[in-house]
Design brief:
Elements (H helix, E strand, L loop, with lengths): L3 H9 L9 H13 L3 E8 L2 E7 L5 E6 L10 E3 L2 E3 L7 H16 L5 E6 L7 H6 L8 E4 L7 E5 L1 E10 L15 H7 L10 E2 L3 E2 L1 E9 L9 E10 L3 H12 L4 E8 L2 E2 L8 E4 L13 E4 L14 E3 H19 L1
Parallel strand pairs: 3-6, 3-7, 7-17, 8-16
Antiparallel strand pairs: 1-2, 2-6, 4-5, 5-18, 8-15, 9-13, 9-14, 10-11, 12-13
Helix pairs in contact: 1-3, 3-7
Length: about 325
């Protein structure tokens, strides 16, 4: 069997933040070609490409992403943990998928494809491009750190920008102006009172006040304030919009940004199953088959300076991915 720990460490050692994934793509491509896989590179933008590998007519596709968030953190093995940027999100997962697919290929199974994407951490341009390919799979097994649990579903997301406007003036003469900050500061604390939908499987809709920008100088009455919110959705986005607009009630302008719907996933008997709160590329890959979401590692350490994955869990993930594929093909 492929040494999945060494493979993961080699991938982690390649710096590949979103937008600069080329070296990771080259490494994975060479690894697959050397083992007899047919590899198609789909250019997403200059120097960046998705990797699609097959041996026949793939019915199950294993997929994850090769980009990471910055900053780069070199790999290190400390006891029973492999540390480094991408250890669990998602280069360790990519290594486990490579090892599992190669194991299945050695057994003569040629109905498995691999799809490694760029851009997942910022806009998912790789997934959007991949959904234009002529996929043949009936099932898509997407890899994100779910603590080796099959996700029953995932919350969606909605970005919202609130804006309040005022009138600029010299701060020595405040009666000549109108502050845009004061109505924003009055509005945001009441967000906790906004009633939001719940779902018996995915739980509560949540909202985070992520950014707040206002004013230019202390001696100028601010004429503009802006706050960006992120909703984690469990159901109908239109219902959330209706409730939000009723709550704002004309006190601010509302601009809707990116939206990913809540999802419910296929599961397999014999695996732990539970919902997750984060989003993935799955909603953008609907041509690749019925979705499943599974991966070793915890989302709670992803994107942190201490990002890591348990060595035993990573080894077990190779077997788990092979089990999932066999069950789906059966």
């Amino acid at each position: 069997m492929t040494d999945v720990i060494s493979l993961a460490a080699e991938l982690i050692a390649i710096e590949s933040p979103t937008g600069d994934e080329g070296r990771a793509v080259d490494f994975v491509t060479r690894w697959l070609v050397a083992r007899g896989w047919n590899v198609t590179l789909q250019e997403v933008s200059r120097g960046r490409a998705n990797v699609w590998a097959s041996r026949g007519r793939g019915e199950v596709t294993l997929s994850t992403h090769l980009d990471t968030v910055p900053p780069f953190v070199r790999p290190s093995l400390n006891g029973d943990r492999l540390y480094g940027r991408g250890a669990c999100d998602a280069k360790g997962i990519a290594a486990a998928m490579l090892a599992a697919a190669d194991l299945l290929a050695q057994e003569g199974e040629e109905r498995v494809d691999l799809l490694f994407l760029v851009g997942e951490e910022k806009g998912s341009d790789g997934a959007r491009a991949a959904n234009r390919l002529e996929a043949t799979s009936r099932f898509l097994v997407n890899g994100e750190p779910t603590e080796s649990t099959l996700a029953t579903g995932a919350k969606g997301s909605l970005r919202v920008t609130l804006r309040t406007r005022g009138r600029a003036a010299h701060s020595a003469y405040p009666h000549l102006g109108q502050s845009a900050i004061e109505p924003m500061l009055a509005l945001l604390p009441t967000l906790a009172l906004l009633p939001l939908p719940t779902d018996p499987q995915l739980g509560e809709t949540t909202v985070n006040i992520g950014t707040l920008h206002a004013g230019t100088e202390a001696n100028i009455i601010p004429d503009r304030a802006e706050s960006e919110l992120m909703f984690r959705l469990v159901g109908d986005v239109d219902e959330v919009k209706r409730r939000l607009e009723a709550w704002v009630a004309g006190r601010a302008e509302i601009e809707y940004g990116s939206y990913i719907p809540a999802q419910h996933f296929h599961t397999i008997p014999g695996f732990r199953a539970a919902p997750v709160a984060f989003t993935s590329d799955i909603p953008l890959l609907d041509r690749w088959g019925t979705p499943l979401l599974f991966g070793p590692g915890s989302i709670h350490v992803a994107h942190t300076p201490d990002e890591h994955i348990d060595v035993r869990e990573l080894h077990d993930a190779v077997t788990a991915y092979a089990r999932i594929v066999r069950a789906l093909l059966a």
